[in-house]
Write a structure and sequence with these properties.
The complex is a heterodimer of chains A (130) and B (362). Chain A is of the alpha+beta class and 130 residues long. Chain A contains three helices and nine strands. The longest helix of chain A has 11 residues, at 119-129. Chain B has eight helices and 21 strands. Chain B has helices at residues 9-14, 34-43, 63-70, 119-130, 153-157, 201-213, 221-230, 267-276, and strands at residues 18-22, 25-30, 46-49, 54-59, 84-90, 96-104, 110-114, 136-139, 143-149, 176-178, 183-185, 194-200, 217-218, 280-287, 298-301, 304-314, 319-327, 334-339, 342-349, 354-355, 358-359. Classes of the chains: A alpha+beta (130), B alpha+beta (362).
């Protein structure tokens, strides 16, 4: 059973979101998601400056086992991507909530954050699915 | 349904295995990272619990005649005890019922090791073919089966074998040595040196523990698949099944056509296919670019479409590789894969992709 940090918000499709002090949100995939995928071998991040729409695919994580889309938890502009993942996709496995972050969005509508789950709700969802 | 477990089930849990259902058996997928496990086999030594595979012993005065009828390869090639042979077992249409290794034990007959998923049907098929012959087909569920593979496998295994198997270290590839209850064979499914070892189930855990103490890594089914794919070896049920013949599965070399009067099951169908023209070929593919070829990926050729039968990421090469069945008339080297809504160039190569830790690509 993987950890579920209390200070993050979570989506139904297993992304996590951290609201940074400058208002941007950092997005990654959860510890549970990386466990299900197994060793990642490629990560495809969106173009900085491109637009993201909540619920739409904007990145791809590919493991030895399967390719999986990553959905934007909120709408806005992609302001940064984790360049390090191109050469070290295993960071997502090793540190899904830290060095394995995927991209940052400048949200256009912060109320979309309210639709996301808190840690307890996400942990309960994972428990009910396993 | 309750999953079957091997004698090493508790040992897997202790080693931190992520266990999955594989053909009705609860088996380790990995023990943390399947890529790390893959590298351990290429660079050091790894141990696989393959006790879910079925050991089948054949004995009796007509054991050889039975196997010469049952198998597409010819056990008459096994002239000295201890020799082993890879073969397909076919149905009357030439389709592959299973692939297996058969070991010759001299006067005591033969031993086969067949796939877990097909074991039950295999044994029923064998017994039906053996009807009326002086040949008995006996399963050996009391044996555990471990594969120890990698450049350091021989050094890790040798000190742990019972005295009766002391010559195992000198075995040549595809040779085996038998003790009273143990057997060690220089065979495997990884493209590396190593052994497959059969031993009494109650001794399996002590042997396993000894290997781990000596620095051998436990390896799950995930790495087993990427290792065999790099080695260019087919996986039954994925790269071939009852609807495909060895001739469209890159296994023509395992069909013993001579002597022409050996009437093995499926022979007539294979001869017909050969005469009419074999419609497809199995090739190796390398993806040029980022992404991973997967089973079912469509491959476009000038002679029509083909399909990836097994594809994955190659940890040794750092790129995606695959086995694919494409039209026989395709002879071009550069092909096109349709991957997740995009087209990407793939290069055709002759498997294997990796042998003894080294890339075989240009």
């Amino acid at each position: 059973m993987s950890e579920t940090p209390q200070d993050l918000r979570y989506s139904e499709s297993h992304e996590w979101v951290r609201v940074e002090s400058d208002g941007a949100v950092t997005v990654g995939i959860t510890g549970h998601a990386q466990e299900l995928l197994g060793d990642l071998v490629f990560v495809e991040t969106p173009e900085p400056g491109s637009a993201a729409s909540a619920g739409e695919a904007c990145a791809t994580v590919e493991s030895v086992k399967a390719a999986s889309d990553v959905y934007a938890p909120v709408s806005g502009e992609i302001v940064a991507v984790n360049e390090g993942l191109a050469d070290a996709p295993e960071l997502v496995n090793e540190s899904p909530y830290g060095e394995g972050w995927l991209f940052r969005i400048e949200p256009s509508d912060t109320t979309e954050l309210d639709a996301l789950m808190d840690a307890d709700a996400y942990a309960a969802k994972v428990a009910s699915e396993s | 349904m309750t999953l079957k477990t091997t004698p090493l089930h508790a040992a897997h849990q202790q080693a931190g295995a992520r266990l999955v259902d594989f053909a009705g058996w609860e088996m380790p997928l990995h023990y943390g990272s399947q890529i790390d496990e893959h590298h351990a086999v290429r660079r050091g030594a790894g141990v696989f619990d393959v006790s879910h595979m079925q050991v089948v012993d054949v004995s009796g005065g007509q054991a050889q005649a039975f196997l010469r009828r049952l198998l597409a390869n010819d056990v008459a090639k096994l002239r000295t005890p201890g020799r082993a042979l890879y073969s397909c077992m076919l149905n009357a249409d030439g389709g592959v019922v299973d692939d297996l290794i058969v070991y010759f034990r001299g006067d005591q007959g033969y031993r086969m090791v067949v796939n877990a998923a097909t074991a039950e049907g295999d044994v029923a098929h064998m017994r039906a073919v053996a009807q009326g012959l002086d040949a008995s087909v006996e399963t050996r569920p009391e044996l555990a089966l471990l594969a120890v593979q990698g450049p350091e496998a021989v050094a890790k295994v040798a000190p742990l074998l019972p005295g009766e198997l002391s010559t195992a270290g000198e075995l040549r590839p595809f040779h085996a040595v038998w003790g009273e209850r143990w057997m060690a064979a220089r065979t495997g499914y990884t493209g590396e040196d190593g052994f497959e070892i059969m031993l009494p189930a109650e001794q399996a855990e002590a042997f396993w523990d000894g290997l781990l103490r000596a620095g051998t890594q436990p390896i799950g089914l995930g790495a087993r698949d990427t290792l065999r794919l790099e080695a260019g070896m087919n996986l039954y049920g994925t790269d071939m099944d009852e609807s495909t013949t060895p001739l469209v599965s890159n296994l023509g070399w395992t069909v013993a056509w001579e002597p022409a009067d050996r009437d093995f099951i499926g022979r007539a169908a294979l001869e017909r296919q050969r005469a009419e023209g074999v419609p497809a070929q199995m090739v190796g593919l390398v993806l040029e670019g980022r992404g991973v070829l997967r089973g079912g990926t469509r491959i476009e050729t000038r002679a029509g479409d083909g399909t990836v039968t097994s594809g994955s990421f190659s940890p040794t090469l750092g790129i995606s590789i695959a086995l694919a069945r494409i039209p026989a008339a395709s002879d071009e080297v550069e092909l096109t894969a349709h991957l997740r809504g995009r087209t990407m160039p793939v290069r055709r190569v002759k498997p294997p992709f990796v042998r003894h830790g080294k890339s075989l690509l240009d």
